[in-house]
Fold:
Amino acid sequence: MIRLICYLMGGKYMKAANFSYYEAKNIQDAIKIKANDEEAVILAGGQSLLPALNMRLSSPSCLIDISKISGLNDIIIDGDYLFIGALATHSDVMRNEIVSQKMPCLIDILKMVAHPAIRNKGTHGGSIAYGDPAAELPALAVATNAEIILSGQNGDRSINANDFYLGLFETAINQDEIVVGIKYPLLKQGQVFLFDEVCRRHGDYAMAGLIANIILSSNKVNDLKLVFFATGDKPDVADKTAKLFLQTGYDYDQLKNSLSSEIDFAGDLNSSSEMKLHLATILIKKIINKLEA
Ligand SMILES: Cc1cc2nc3c(=O)[nH]c(=O)nc-3n(C[C@H](O)[C@H](O)[C@H](O)COP(=O)(O)OP(=O)(O)OC[C@H]3O[C@@H](n4cnc5c(N)ncnc54)[C@H](O)[C@@H]3O)c2cc1C
Structure:
């Protein structure tokens, strides 16, 4: 979206409109300011928000900077979940030993997110909260049935990622809430997450991407959840197509027909909706090839 509008405006606005700035000392502090000003927004790593401000796609009254709040970047095992604090940067996550042991696919995915300078600032919670339909992490959260932990005036609540993304950059975060962490269920016996995407250059947003949650039994795919990104206005779950694949295996025409009936492919500057449909169909094959490799 940002990329399209920037192109259409020819870089016309490159300075943000005026806003006030507030450095939150703790979570309660941030929640209080946000609850009382519906035009205030959270600033985390600033890697998506600041370009949007400079292009005047957004003109909030106040930026509530949460980046200095301590204790929001933990990465720990919490019961049956891997918990990642909202302020853990993409680089923190990639370097983390627990992530490499418990959820190695997350590291492969983050290697495809932007470039090192952006990954050093961009946060896990920021990516989840922003809900860019072309971003990898929202699709991963949906594919893994992750829980998004929100903190608000009435305390904490947890919402499943499948219910969190409502539309284009639209999430279930209430005015008084901030994302404090994400809980990914730990892998079960026979479970693998596989990921692939097609992009023009390494680090660019994907033209189309797929994250598959696979349950293997005797080396065969026993259950499958397919979640596409950069295809529509939010992570696209393709249950009908997954079921078809389980019944018939990989058949390009059949799967393409099924995907076209299930997902409202939205073209962008890099690829038409028809191209995205083709790439999505091919991505299923690429994932299956990885499984067989
Ligand atoms: C050139 C470039 C290339 C990129 N390529 C990719 C890519 O390929 N894939 C990809 O996934 N991302 C990409 N990104 C985005 C990057 O991953 C960002 O880090 C991420 O989207 C947002 O994280 P942030 O911490 O910078 O959030 P910010 O920019 O600070 O905030 C983004 C939005 O989320 C809200 N927000 C942030 N944190 C919270 C919170 N804890 N609670 C509630 N709301 C919150 C903000 O109010 C804002 O609306 C790219 C960015 C750039 C500049």
About this structure: The chain has a mean pLDDT of 94. The domain at 191-292 is CATH 3.30.390.50 (Enolase-like; domain 1). The radius of gyration is 19 Å. The longest strand covers residues 208-217.
